[in-house]
Write a structure and sequence with these properties.
The protein is an alpha+beta fold. The chain has three domains: 52 residues, Arc Repressor Mutant, subunit A, CATH 1.10.10; 38 residues, no CATH class; 96 residues, Jelly Rolls (Sandwich). The strands form four sheets. Strands 3, 4, 5, 8, 9, 10 and 13 form a seven-stranded antiparallel beta sheet that branches. Strands 11-7-14 form a three-stranded antiparallel beta sheet, with no helix packed on it. A hairpin with a 4-residue loop joins strand 4 and strand 5. It starts with 5 loop residues before the first helix and ends with a strand.
Length: 200
């Protein structure tokens, strides 16, 4: 491709910028660029400026539960999982035991598994684990928060909770003195906009 028309250069530059050239054509065109064709180099720069914006031009679309389930299944199969740990179909979402890794909450001795994240409402459901002696930071609720204790003990605002106990916190209320003497496991639904407070 030592010499070419402007039209031919534009065509190749556009396909190159889109990553649509075959392997041989790609190598040939890059060699041509290295040879110093300023016309093609300028075309590539112009097309890349456009192709870089293509992803932003598409309108965001909600993923269907069926597609999401298929993608999760494929990822789990690729990772060697013997069965899916999240199943979504017909408007239902099942998170099976053993799903996900424990993640640090940022508070020492406190970790969580994310069960659901409603990005539209900024509302989450998490399985939360606290080690013996762990303290969860005081926080103000930006929406209703609900806690259901599965195992252990949890002190919340002066009330000791045990397995099977439930707590509902209204919008604007504050949780202080949240700690577990012997460790605990609970499910919490809460706003991602909760405000951490510098009090204990």
């Amino acid at each position: 491709m030592s010499s070419h028309s402007l039209e031919r250069g534009q065509e190749r530059a556009a396909l190159y910028a889109l990553g649509a050239l075959g392997a041989d054509e790609h190598r040939e065109f890059e060699s041509h660029l290295r040879d110093g064709c300023e016309i093609c180099a300028a075309e590539v720069r112009a097309f890349r400026a456009v192709t870089g914006e293509l992803g932003l031009a598409a309108r965001a679309q909600a993923t269907s539960p069926e597609l999401r389930a298929r993608v999760i299944d494929r990822l789990q199969q690729a990772a060697g999982a013997t069965e899916p740990r999240v199943v979504e179909k017909h408007g239902l979402r099942f998170v099976l035991a053993g799903y996900g890794e424990w993640q640090s909450s940022g508070a020492p001795g406190c970790s969580f598994k994310l069960l659901n994240d409603d990005a539209g409402r900024q509302y989450r459901t998490q399985l939360i684990r606290m080690d013996p002696g762990a303290v969860y930071p005081a926080h103000r609720h930006a929406d209703v928060e609900e806690i259901y204790l599965l195992e252990g003990d949890l002190l919340v605002s002066g009330v000791v909770m045990h397995a099977g106990d439930y707590c509902r916190a209204e919008l604007g209320s504050v949780h202080v003195g949240v700690r577990s003497d012997n460790g605990c496991l609970f499910i919490a639904t809460f706003s991602a906009r909760n405000e951490r407070l510098a009090i204990e």
